[in-house]
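Is this the right way to post structure tokens for a design question? Let me know if I should format differently. Anyway, here goes:
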């Protein structure tokens, strides 16, 4: 049951991200559906072009929302992280199999992300999330990112079903 609840929470985060952009005035479109059915990537396995995603557009601005996407680290090493919900620049994720295997989204093409945990929110979990942000989008720890408000973006987010425990 734990795996199912985590998968449902990840799907909820995916929908919440797309709803955020809809509320911010973006047009939200389903991409790569299978006869009207959204195929959700619920693990780190599989190539992103085998699953569905959302494309959000507002004027000249566009982003894509993908689930369980591999992303390169921000510090110039070869680290790869899988974020539960990735907000990516348009067309940065392959739409079909290429001649070379796809490894990960380039860090520069990641706009923001959501991490999902079915855990009680306690200080160590928050510290872990800050560590993830430091590895994946460290500029988000330096305050407001340039243009986030203007373009209706959201900062890296931790989503949890658990309650807050201060100890």
């Amino acid at each position: 049951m734990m795996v199912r609840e985590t998968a449902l929470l990840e799907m909820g985060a995916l929908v919440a991200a797309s709803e955020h952009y809809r509320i911010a005035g973006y047009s939200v479109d389903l991409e790569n559906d299978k006869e009207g059915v959204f195929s959700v990537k619920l693990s780190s396995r599989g190539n992103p072009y085998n699953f569905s995603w959302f494309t959000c557009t507002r004027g000249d601005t566009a982003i894509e929302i993908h689930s369980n996407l591999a992303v390169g680290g921000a510090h110039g090493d070869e680290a790869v992280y899988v974020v539960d919900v990735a907000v990516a620049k348009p067309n940065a994720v392959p739409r079909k199999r290429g001649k070379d295997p796809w490894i990960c989204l380039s860090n520069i093409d990641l706009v923001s992300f959501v991490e999902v945990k079915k855990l009680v929110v306690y200080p160590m979990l928050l510290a872990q999330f800050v560590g993830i942000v430091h590895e994946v989008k460290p500029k988000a720890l330096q305050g407001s990112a340039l243009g986030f408000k203007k373009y209706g973006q959201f900062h890296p987010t931790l989503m949890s079903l658990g309650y807050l425990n201060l100890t």
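Format looks fine. Someone answered above. Worth noting: The helical segments are 2-23, 123-136. The chain has one domain: 2-160.
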